[in-house]
UniProtKB/TrEMBL annotation:
UniProt pathway: Pyrimidine metabolism; UMP biosynthesis via de novo pathway; (S)-dihydroorotate from bicarbonate: step 1/3; Amino-acid biosynthesis; L-arginine biosynthesis; carbamoyl phosphate from bicarbonate: step 1/1
Subunit structure and binding partners: Composed of two chains; the small (or glutamine) chain promotes the hydrolysis of glutamine to ammonia, which is used by the large (or ammonia) chain to synthesize carbamoyl phosphate. Tetramer of heterodimers (alpha,beta)4.
The species this protein was found in: Rubrimonas cliftonensis
One Pfam family it belongs to: GATase
Primary enzyme class: ligase
Binding site for L-glutamine: 53, 251, 253, 282, 285, 323, 325-326
Gene name per UniProt: carA
BP GO terms, sorted: 'de novo' pyrimidine nucleobase biosynthetic process; 'de novo' UMP biosynthetic process; glutamine metabolic process; L-arginine biosynthetic process
Catalytic activity: hydrogencarbonate + L-glutamine + 2 ATP + H2O = carbamoyl phosphate + L-glutamate + 2 ADP + phosphate + 2 H(+); L-glutamine + H2O = L-glutamate + NH4(+)
Taxonomic classification: Bacteria, Pseudomonadati, Pseudomonadota, Alphaproteobacteria, Rhodobacterales
Protein's UniProt keywords contain Ligase: yes
Alphabetical list of InterPro entries matching this protein: Anth_synth/Amidotransfase (IPR050472), CarbamoylP_synth_ssu (IPR006274), CarbamoylP_synth_ssu_N (IPR002474), CarbP_synth_ssu_N_sf (IPR036480), Class_I_gatase-like (IPR029062), CPSase_GATase1 (IPR035686), GATASE (IPR017926)
Name the UniProt record assigns to this protein: Carbamoyl phosphate synthase small chain
The EC number(s) this enzyme carries: 6.3.5.5
Domain of life: Bacteria
Annotated spans, CPSase: 1-202
Amino acid sequence: MPHPNARALTGRIALADGSVLRGVGFGASGAQAGELCFNTAMTGYQEILTDPSYAGQIVTFTFPHIGNVGANAEDEEGGTAAALGCVTREVPTAPSNWRSAGRFADWMSARGLIGVGGVDTRRLTRLIRGKGAPHAVIAHAADGVFDEAALVAQARAFAGLVGADLARDVTAPEAYAWADGGWRWPGGYGGEDAAPPRPGRRRVVAIDYGAKRNILRRLVEAGCEVHVLPAGATAAQVRALDPDGLFLSNGPGDPAATAEYAAPMIREIIEQTPIAVFGICLGHQMLGLALGARTVKMNHGHHGANHPVKDLETGKVEIVSMNHGFAVDAQTLPTGVIETHVSLFDGSNCGLKVAGRPVFSVQHHPEASPGPHDSHYLFDRFVSAMG
Ligand SMILES: NC(=O)CC[C@H](N)C(=O)O
């Protein structure tokens, strides 16, 4: 007789190398192919899974208990696309906190996210770290019946993130204004109405390549009035709003795949308009590309809320939130572009600035959603750079 606690193995993780891990499926049903990465954050699973930068990826959480505090409407970082699903050590339980809007598994279903729990995530993480982020399929079927060979074939057929322009897929369909944590986006999330522009605020045009909401909130907190433009915005469209600063957001996919539209716009602004420019993550990589540097695919990337980064100008070490699988190759930074931050895990580039200009960017996530607040000062630095 089966153990009374035994649960059917209704989930699978199939890797392109042919291995198949079995677990307990939860959330949405189906089978999705993507790149499998691991995230070491101990909190913030809902922010992670709704961060548009995770489009095309499946997240293995190294922290074993995921979903225990349920899900709620405030913690969503994006309105539409995000990760494909997640892998957990323990099968999520019912929420244990009073403010949850609902069970994690129900929220996963509603978002179309597939979960597989009861997996040896330690083994999976070692595998990803050793061989690089694999192409994989995450699958959930209530009857526990799978064609495992077909899942492996589906993982092998995944084209990968190199060369994939996903920022265009997740960007806002049209321009919108954001203020005080609210936004106006017809058919969107439907949060609070945007407040009218306030006198005395610095005007920022933020390009949405898959922007996390908490970045926009932090910009408002730092004293900005934020106007968001879709990914394909031209320099003329940016200038038409007469901003004091241009913000380049985070986002999914390969930065080099955006070369046709992002780099030319950024270059034109830097060359012709004397405003401050600040980029985060994909925005950092795009700024690097616009300045003439190259980006490279990392082995397994940086995904977590506990990464040490050194500010090379102050010598201070910040513990930061990270989520990237590509990086700017610091060796390719041209003269006049200075490396400002490095990862103390692997020495990879984490920041740059243009000498003598109010133009800078970081690879990590100062908005800390989830994560530590050590890098919040960068939002004030952006506002100061507006003169
Ligand atoms: N969070 C991000 O902006 C990620 C940037 C890019 N997609 C990468 O994986 O490196």
